[in-house]
Write a structure and sequence with these properties.
The structure holds two protein chains of two kinds. Chain A is mainly alpha-helical. In chain A, 73% of the residues lie in helices and 0% in strands. In chain B, helix 5 links the parallel strand 4 and strand 5. In chain B, 38% of the residues lie in helices and 13% in strands. Chain B has an eight-stranded mixed beta sheet. Chains A and B meet through helix 1, helix 2 and helix 3 of A and helix 3 of B.
Chain lengths: 45, 335
């Protein structure tokens, strides 16, 4: 998964994310890990 | 905890008090966030960070288990990047519990559906009147953004009028209720010595300037003030004001300043929000373009009590006509 598609996923919003989770396109664990990575990289900036 | 910063420009504030929530949503650190709004604390950070922030009607979202916040001024709501996501959050949050001091008839639809629905032809009032007691100047760019929104609403077929609510001395009533609410909240803090000095000053002001008899009079008078302001909604469906008086101010804001200085600064920056905490009406702040300083401009839509669905529909219509969600702070694209 590339950085830019990661960013798109991070900004997809709860409505789209819920649909992606429901369809199995993305696992909630991946989303939590994505947001934890972004917090690590961007918080305190 | 230090100073919270705005992802659009770390030298500026993300607004407050739900500023950390707003900064996190705007930077893509979370998908959406909850917040609470006792004087603008959802709408102000939404305005500063280019988000949709709705303060629901008092009683729409349960105050449990904490109970009614700040004598009923404070309600829970959400911060999101689009109207539909904001509506989805409200779908997840609304409802009452038996212990709630205030509750509304349940909403049986879905706010997400309302957000995608044509609002029909609405009667809309445009106002940038400042309530008595708030001395500030609305920036030219914020005024232009508000006027552009008005022009867009006209082009969308709504009936526009320039009308001001009869605010009267609502700002004075608000600030007294608010100080007393902070005092009463401070009594529930396990260790008051850990409160910031300005918070302790506000609590002391609430204790001494708003003793129990005055508190009782304020609460008894609230329905009178609310009826006077709400009279305008007999003639209109939605009021449109600027979101804040200007784009986000310096990140330091009132941090470490005395309570009177901090309150004065906040009042000059955010004169359009607190009166609707007193009336308990639903109000939503949303993006209205980007200013020359590359920070989000904003407008606020204020509805009739219980009419969050109308605000969702109208905000959704504005967003569909002038989408904003593809604009993100540059910082958010770095990894």
């Amino acid at each position: 998964v590339t950085a830019s598609s990661d960013t798109e996923l991070a900004f997809a919003g709860p409505l789209a994310l819920a649909q992606m989770v429901r369809s199995g396109e993305v696992h909630p664990r991946e989303l939590v890990q994505l947001y934890l990575r972004r917090i690590e990289a961007l918080d305190r900036r | 905890l230090g100073i919270t910063r705005n992802p659009w420009n770390p030298g500026r504030t993300p607004g407050g008090s739900s500023g950390g929530s707003a900064a996190a949503v705007a930077a893509g650190l979370v998908a959406a966030a909850t917040g609470s709004d006792g004087g603008g604390s959802i709408r102000i950070p939404a305005a500063c960070c280019g988000l949709v922030g709705m303060k629901p009607t008092r009683g729409r979202v349960s105050g449990e288990p904490a109970g009614a916040g700040w004598l009923g001024l404070s309600v829970y709501g959400a911060l999101a990047r689009t109207v539909r996501d904001s509506a989805l959050m409200l779908d997840a949050m609304h409802g009452a519990l038996p212990a709630d001091a205030d509750s509304l008839p349940a909403f049986s639809g879905r706010y997400v559906d309302a957000a995608g629905r044509d609002p029909g032809r609405l009667r809309i009032a445009l106002s940038r009147k400042l309530p008595v007691g708030l001395l500030t100047k609305v920036s030219a760019q914020q005024r232009d953004a508000w006027e552009r929104t008005g022009a867009l609403l006209g082009a969308l077929g709504h009936d526009l009028v320039h009308r001001d609510p009869a605010y009267g001395p609502v700002a004075f009533e608000f600030v007294q209720t608010w100080m007393r609410g902070i005092y009463e909240e401070s009594l529930r803090v396990p260790d008051r010595s850990l409160l910031a000095p300005s918070t302790r000053q506000m609590a002391a002001a609430g204790r001494y300037l708003v003793p129990p008899a005055r508190r009782a009079r304020l609460l008894a008078h609230r329905s009178v003030t609310t009826a006077r302001i709400l009279a305008l909604w007999d003639e209109i469906d939605v009021l449109v004001t600027p979101g804040t008086a200007m784009t986000a101010i310096a990140a330091e804001g009132g941090y470490g300043r005395s309570a009177p200085l901090a309150v004065n600064l906040a009042g000059r920056f955010t004169p359009f929000t607190a009166m609707f905490n007193l009336t308990g009406q639903p109000a939503v702040a949303g993006p209205a373009g980007i200013g020359d300083d590359r920070l989000p401009l904003s407008v606020q839509l204020v509805g009739r009590p219980g009419a969050e669905d109308v605000l969702c529909s109208l905000a959704g219509q504005i967003e569909a006509a002038a989408p904003w969600a593809d604009r993100r702070p540059a910082l958010a694209n770095q990894q």
